[in-house]
Protein: Conserved hypothetical methyl-accepting chemotaxis protein
Organism: Shewanella woodyi
Amino acid sequence: MKALLRLSVMALLGMLTTACSLLEVKLESGIEPLPQEQLNMRVFSRDFSSSFYSKVEQTADKIALLHKDEADAIYIHSNSLMWKIYSEQALQRTIFQASPVAAMVDTWALTAQMTEFYETGAGKALFGSDQALAVEVSRSLQVQFENTIKGFVKPGEFDQNKAFIEQYVDKNPLTEMTFSRHSAFNDWLTFRGINEFEAVTTFGSVPEVMSDISDRMAMIAEQMPKILGWKAELYALHSNINAAEIQDTLANISDTSAKFRELMAQSPEMMQALAVDMRRELSPLLQQLSDSTDNKLAQLSVERQALELMVKNERLALEEMVSRERVEAAANLDEISKHTVEVVFQELTKTLKSLILYFVLFLIVVFFAPLGLGVWLGKRMESKRSVKPAKAT
């Protein structure tokens, strides 16, 4: 009896140890991390952003420099600035999505749309004789991203995804330099026959989510000053201030004054009379020049104020973006914590139910089984005793 009791206690301790191990595993896996494939996809996609920024900026600056002394210099310069501004803003929207798969599909679609826009689309004549440079760099960025994607998907899936990208670009071409577009991820889900509720099953563990937010903040801090500078340059390029005309006018006045001094030295009396006449004739012109200069200075002051207001609005937008990202991160953390608690309590409930069942079985084995065995043996012995006297008679 003591041996049976000892064996039962050891079995109960073993079950408790197994239950604790099960609880530990479930607790650790309650927050599901991203698969390694998606983590690699996120890393390589964001490495691609650095290459995208540098190639677009270098090519745009090169095109503007090649047309610096031509008649269409302002037009080409404006287009190069808008290419840098809007393409990099569009890339930030696509590549910093919560789902690495969504970021991959949408960034691929953006590179293909930009290639089509400069090669055969609405932007095929924006850079004049150097349009081929924009087409070449857009094509190279698309090929570079596709080569990166080949390492994450199977060959059959890559061909299927490429067919979707070509179909999407045909239906959704870019129509202007602002790169206005909608995300390709939902269209990709429809094309692949994937339910949108099953497309994203996890946003990653807490360290992965915090790393994602850190990457976003670092990229915004790096790119925002450059984009603000390009916008200010674009604004100044299309303002009404023409500094060249003012410089030409001042140079002409200086040359005229030098010639007058030479004439006065040769004929003082005649030049004195001429000076009086010139003063009378030039007074209206000087007054007009003074008024024009005042107007230009006033206009410059207004445009400076407008530029300051634009910079202020951009800063406010940046602060709002950072605040929104923080709120979203906090909401994700709250949701993850809530999910973890629910999983823990569910598994704890299951474990307690199992323990109660095993405890009842233990009680039956320890107490009721010996009792039933004793009753059965007593009845058997009683029946044998009753049989023996009957035979004796």
Summary: DSSP finds eleven helices and no strands in the chain.
